[in-house]
Amino acid sequence: MKSFNLSAIEAILEKHGKAEESLIAVLKDIQNHYGYLPQEALRHVSEKLAVPLSKIFCIATFYSFFSLEPRGKNVISVCQGTACHMKKGEEVVTSLTRALKLGTDKKTTSDGAFTLEKVRCMGCCSIAPAVRVNQDHYGQVTQNSVANILSKYGKV
Amino acid sequence: MKVSGKKDLQKLQKEGMAILFPDRTRIMVGMATCCLAKGSAEVMSALKDEIKKQGLKADVVSVGCIGLCYQEPTIEVVQPGKPKITYGEITPGKIPSLVACIKQGKVEKQSVLYRTDKEELPLNGGRHIFSKGAPQKEFKGIQEYSEVPFFKKQRKIALRNAGFIDPENISEYIARGGYSSLVNTLASMKPEDVIAEVTKAGLRGRSGGGFPTGVKWQACRKAEGKIKYMLCNVSEGDPGIGMHKSLLESDPHSVLEGMIIGAYAIGAKEGYIYISSGQTLGVRRMEKAVADAKAHGFLGKSILKSGFDFTVKVKEGAGAYVCGEESALIRSFEGDWGEPRQRPPYPAVSGLWGKPTVINNVETLANVPVIMGQGAKWFSSIGSEKSKGTKVFSIVGEVNRPGLIEVPMGTTLREIIYDVGGGLPRGKTLKAVLAGGPAGGCVPKKLMSLPVDYEALMQAGSAMSSGGIIVMGEDTCMVDMNKYLLSFSEGESCGKCTPCRVGVRRMREIITDISEGKGREGDVELLEKMALLIKDGALCNLGKTAPNPVLATLRYFKDEYQAHIKNKKCSAAVCTSLKK
Amino acid sequence: MVKLTIDGKKVEVPKGTTVLDAARKLDIHIPTLCFHEAITPYGGCRLCIVEVIRDGATQIASSCVYEAADGLEVKTATDRVLELRKFMVELLLAEAPEAQVLQDLAQELGVKAPKRFKVRNELCIACGQCVRACREIVGVSAIDFANKGYEKKASSPFFERSDACIGCGTCFSICPTGAITLKDLAEGETAELPDGTKVIGPARIIDNWKVGLAMKKCKQCGEPFAPQFQLEHFTKKVNLAADFYDVCVQCRT
After folding, report:
1. Among C46, C80, C84, whose Cβ lies nearest the Cβ of B539?
2. What is the pTM of this model?
């Protein structure tokens, strides 16, 4: 866990200019840097942009892109699009949940290596069911290919 | 170099042509997101290595998506005097023999898909001829592009360059006629004339309800105030379609050129392209396109010496389906949650920061340069009576050839599924087609002669929306599909108005009950009543369209609901709590 | 000025007036839930909906946010409107059956509690009055909406103790359903906030925002009269003398 470094946030704020309209872009960059939105970061943004903390929390909880919980080193996003649903995307979620020993409340593995998320349509409908790990996309994922994909990210 | 007029553009066009059709071999590899997911990066890497190894002098280019998703990774080879050859399902293992064939000017017969003798350039009605006259012996037995079943009924207008050019090279875009419409428009047309042309062409918004683009532009032009904004919405959230993403990744300039022409028409000096989350490649390609357009003088002050100033910024949003609703998009853009507002006032009159704003979809904008290049009469000769032009569709599900296609409006569902899509895989029987995603409705198999056109789809209880077509077989449960679609809308509801926030959730709860064998007598009647009230009472189009799948499934598959409720039966064997 | 017709009656109002306000000028009653005169209208509850006819087209619109225009024709109680209003109340009754305001509306509109929906018992119906009041009237924005869709409700940041809350109680008094609880603890009286924090009076507690604020005692009469933090806030904001609030309002007058 990174020790809290405000300078990263300062740099992000500088990059976007200190305007309220850049709020979402600022939060995105913060999430890209920390893997999630730490409370301290949001408090700092609130102060620097003179935007109420309650508004920032409102935005952070409105857009499903944002995570207020720390996420694992590798983020596995399983597509919830229609084509993926038809091609049994739920089974992929079940396989991954089982393989990583996660549950409905537990989304990140104890060793912090993986976080499993269900996401909105990725637009890879022709290769449904689709899974994204970090920036890598995988298509036609089955219960059997799940282990192979995980092994690429260090899962034994 | 900064383009100041037609002559400069022609010079660039010539230079671009030399890149597209060089004196030596040009090899194009599809590198859009889905291509990458299927391993095209490894193929590209293997290709580059093998070319070096075998000493082949060739230009290797990353291109976007040609829509042939079911046969990715694809490679296309252009050699002087020879037809273009397209190969599919390439793996790194197939590269050595492929390169060997290319070196000899031969066709690798195992992986070849088709050849292209000539290519249409819809922007100016021109064409490029790869090989004149009768095909040489080597290529004779290979099917020509125009005969390929997947492409035969398609007509690429919005997707005219997708897969044919390096999306990061503006010269290739210009070579195929790009920016000629902008040059001609600024040189010889007044903004009012542009609006008249687009109106006459009959262009309608390609996402959502299909509002006439010219009418929207006119309303904004006429609105009070000197400051106006042009916004391109790429917050695609419709599950089951990757069209917006594809256009950004494959041909960002087509969208940009349309946007510049639109801004000229409405009198906007600032434009924004608002891209939602998860589109890293698209964002990068669009940012490059904007930078290159600026460097060439297509953006900035007094563009092409016309006196018209226009700058564009790419802005990243956090993504929400409700941001497909214009007023919600505006709030999101301003740095807030995607809160829809009641209309009137319409964004064309009071939008971004209260100023008149036009919001257009990527596909709508991609059509604009073609309309300005070929004219309204030409454009309106394609399509049906009230739906002009073509539509990009993502055809997925139980279909042999899933992919991204573009067909004239008015093409029937039957033609799309069977002629273009290649029908259902062996052993699967057609049950229904879902068009329009969570805002649309399923069309049963008896209605396959339905033309894809805004009005026809709406009358049948479906919708055009972004253009998702999902083919469903007999092993799809309509109750389950409805539950899935409603869950999506429920999850994306912004929560502002009672009918959507609470009503959609309660409808979904009832359908969940039905899918779990807990349906009650009267549920079907209650669902229908709720659906109609939510449609009438919701504040924005998310709420107004969320009940559509319910109404469509009740209209065509009521017996399935009854079977679930009365007999606790799910004939598709999807609802696991029920018997088959 | 603009001229419009509501339920057949003509009325003239200044430009910018909402249809709701125009109707009130005519003493025509339109039920509301998320509306309050002191804050900007929201248009979310959809109780105040009416039929608006403009350029030949009819639209269902929230009257509290629809701007009156010349030639507008409004119908406030057609069958279509009444059926929709009943539906809204039915939906909300299953959310918060205990809320008096909803029971009153149910009676007014002739609505029975729906049997098919499982009762949720969540008094917050996401009307946003508290949020708008805290932002516009009080000016501290201690609270805002959190989440979207069905889970949307007014909340303090991170669902934890709000640092910005000054304990003025505006949210408590404006909330139409009584979803917000506020209590003043007497000297020595104790309570536990939902996050486990123990508070000893004299203090003001607002459970929803996990706020427990010590009350200031008047130097003259010794009675606790306002949260200390609130007084510090106003002292700073309006640049008052440090001892301005040493004495309570009653003793000052």
Report:
1. C46
2. 0.95
